Amino acid sequence: MALYPATSDSEKISFNQINKSTGHRIKYVKVDADTGEEVSNEDITKGYKVDTDTYVEVSKEELDNIALESTRTIDINEFVPKSDIDPRYLVRPYYLVPDGKVGHDAFVVIREAAIKTPPSNCSRLWHLTCIKCRMPFLLFPACKSSAGV
Questions:
Q1: Whole-angstrom distance, CA of residue 118 vs CA of residue 144
Q2: How many C-beta neighbours within 10 Å does residue 2 have?
Q3: Of 68, 84, 121, 147, which has the highest C-beta tally within 10 A?
Q4: Is there a domain that residue 16 lies in?
Q5: Which pTM does this prediction carry?
Q6: How many CB atoms lie within 10 A of CB 35?
Q7: Number of Cβ atoms within 10 Å of the Cβ of 110
Q8: Nearest CA-CA partner of 87 in 37, 56, 122
Q9: Is residue 135 one of the residues assigned to a domain?
Q10: Is 3 domain-assigned?
Q11: pLDDT 10s per residue in the chain (149 long)?
Q12: DSSP characters for 10-51?
């Protein structure tokens, strides 16, 4: 299975900040909040804020060790009425499409289940392929063909 964004930001207009007097683009520099000195990317790490000025440093290795391993599976947890879903949780739509023979067979099963479910219902999914954390997905059939769910 593969996910593709159903919407695009490419048609949005974006602006850069420029210096009025020279017309040059504004550059952002990473500086130490206390010393005001520029800090190179090699000297920057992640930190979790535990108090006003206290941080616990967290390395990339530590984050990698606690990240969920991708199982490349989709688990359908339950069917819920659409009316039970707060629209604030619907951030960005994607198309779920088959990817290879195994993906196509799995896609057909999921698509048929979604089509046969009453229109007032939807599937709630957990999808682990895209990033290393659990992400809830709501699945609605887009059409009755094998083009997308």
A1: 14
A2: 14
A3: 121
A4: no
A5: 0.47
A6: 8
A7: 19
A8: 122
A9: yes
A10: no
A11: 677 787 877 777 889 999 999 999 999 999 999 999 999 999 999 999 999 889 999 998 898 888 766 666 666 666 666 677 777 877 777 777 777 777 788 777 777 776 676 655 544 443 333 444 556 667 666 655 544 44
A12: TTS-----B-TTT-PBP----B-TTT--B--GGG--EEEEEE
In a domain, 52, yes or no: no
Give the CB-side neighbour count of residue 40, counting CA atoms within 13 A: 2
Q: Which amino acid is at 7?
A: T
Contact (CB, 8 A) for 55 and 44: no
Longest C-alpha distance within the chain, in Å?
63
DSSP structural state of residue 6: S
Instruction: Describe the chain by its helix, strand, coil percentages, rounded to 5.
Output: 20, 30, 50
Q: Which of 87, 98, 79, 99 is nearest to 140 (CA)?
A: 79
Look up the domain containing 83 and give its range. 68-139
Which are the contacts of 147, defined by CB distance < 8 A and separation ≥ 6?
Answer: 97
Lookup: tokens for 97: 């499409």
Q: Is the dihedral of CA 106, 133, 61, 33 positive or negative?
A: positive
Q: How many domains in the chain?
A: 1
Report the alpha-carbon distance of residue 79 to residue 114 in Å, rounded.
9
Residue carrying the six token digits 């895209």:
130
